[in-house]
Amino acid sequence: MKSPIFTTLLAIAALAAAQGKQTFTGAITDDMCARADHSGMRMGPTDAECTIACVMVHGAAYVLYDGKEVYALSDQKTPEKFAGQKVTVRGTLDAKTIHVDSITAAK
User: Fold this and answer.
1) pTM for the full model?
2) What CA–CA distance (Å, rounded) separates 107 from 57?
């Protein structure tokens, strides 16, 4: 017979495993233009240049916008080379922050 403590620990382990690595696809943008609409800021002639300028000049942070949700990214260095582009991010979601394992160009 299994003890209630063992059963509870097993359930917690199963939930933790379910919240493991995930894949997210969307555009790298910044939290000032989080919905990837740079028309209001237009810090450069392209979305990529505007995103980079907002991060470097105005202290914005890189985020991933999937068309519905905006996710903060734990990695703030790698997204620069993907600014304004559609990407695939692999990592663990914690509330609204993706703890990034990798970022690659989306196919």
Assistant:
1) 0.77
2) 31
